[in-house]
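Retro notes (design track)

What went well: tokenization of the new backbones is finally stable.
What didn't: we kept losing track of which sequence belonged to which structure.
Fix going forward: every design gets posted as structure first, then sequence, in one message. First example under the new rule, 315 residues:
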């Protein structure tokens, strides 16, 4: 009997650029595996759920990709190779610091004798230079791979393909699943072909998305250090839901956060304990990012897992 996820992949087509992305993923993983690097797959941003095959409208969510894009930079700082699997047009590592108008405001434009010169304003150089230096170094060393998705189906196809490429890393891989992935979708055979007409209210019935985390943890990358995120809006549900996920999927860590406070407070929930990371007002004022502490903590736990496995092997 087909499991739910097999049915999902059998009925939802891969994105058009899927084969290209699969090749790029494989090349990136093979190279970093040969180098003996640790690797982090970071998922980031929200997914869309199309309402029509010729998609005009879709269901979306709030996620901007702040968590994922900031975390990617910190994993790079800890020496990890990074696959940054993100929602197209959501925030990306490095460029996130100068999003939108901010970038334009850093530049000066001069026209002289028919020549146009663009320069960085002197007071912006100190802000731009360190980020630009880190970006250049990361790209020159080939340490990051950017892969983008838009819809839920794109995301799930890329997630499985990434796991296939990461399996050989064994315990040296982290999956840091920060994307806000839809729990509901419309199966293709129940979806309208053309734009929904507005003569009468549409009758839309959403189905539950199969829980891929179970396949990730138990089948696709059983040795990897898997970190999932749990978002709630009702504080009373937060920890119990995180614990339920740990029991159900048997992975290592759930990072729980509330919608409104996600940038200053998270709770690490493991099978053994739970504890909070909180930023103080002063830290927030000084531009400290909570992802700095989150990633440092995850990296420490990952190293402990690798070391404990190595010492078991030696015995
Ligand atoms: O992308 P963002 O920085 O705006 O938000 C991050 C987040 C809240 C989506 C992430 O921390 C998270 O909790 N992701 C999992 C959401 C969930 O499926 O429960």
């Amino acid at each position: 009997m087909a499991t739910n996820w097999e049915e999902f992949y059998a009925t939802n087509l891969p994105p058009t650029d899927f084969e290209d992305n699969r090749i790029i993923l494989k090349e990136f993983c093979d190279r970093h595996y040969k180098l003996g690097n640790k690797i982090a797959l970071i998922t980031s941003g929200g997914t869309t759920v199309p309402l029509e095959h010729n998609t005009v409208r879709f269901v979306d969510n709030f996620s901007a990709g702040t968590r994922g894009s900031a975390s990617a930079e910190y994993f790079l700082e800890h020496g990890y190779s990074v696959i940054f699997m993100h929602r197209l047009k959501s925030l990306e590592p490095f460029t996130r610091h100068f999003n939108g108008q901010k970038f334009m405001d850093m530049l000066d434009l001069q026209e002289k004798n028919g020549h146009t010169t663009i320069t960085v304003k002197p007071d912006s150089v100190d802000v731009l230079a360190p980020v630009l230096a880190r970006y250049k170094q990361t790209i020159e060393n080939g340490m990051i791979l950017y892969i983008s998705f838009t819809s839920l189906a794109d995301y799930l196809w890329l997630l499985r393909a990434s796991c296939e490429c990461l399996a050989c890393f064994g315990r040296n891989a982290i999956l840091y699943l920060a994307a806000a992935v839809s729990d509901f979708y419309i199966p293709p055979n129940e979806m309208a072909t053309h734009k929904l007409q507005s003569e009468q209210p549409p009758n839309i019935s959403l189905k539950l998305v199969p829980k891929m985390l179970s396949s990730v943890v138990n089948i696709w990358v059983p040795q990897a250090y898997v970190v999932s995120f749990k978002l709630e809006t009702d504080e009373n549900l937060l920890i119990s839901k995180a614990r339920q996920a740990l029991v159900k999927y048997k992975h290592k860590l759930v990072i729980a956060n509330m919608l409104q406070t996600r940038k200053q407070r998270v709770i690490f929930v493991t099978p053994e304990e739970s504890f909070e990371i909180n930023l103080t007002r002063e830290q927030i004022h000084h531009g400290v990012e909570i992802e700095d502490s989150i990633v440092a903590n995850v990296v420490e736990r990952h190293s402990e897992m690798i070391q404990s496995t190595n010492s078991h092997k030696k015995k």
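Added context from the reviewer: The domain at 4-223 is CATH 3.40.50.10300 (Rossmann fold).
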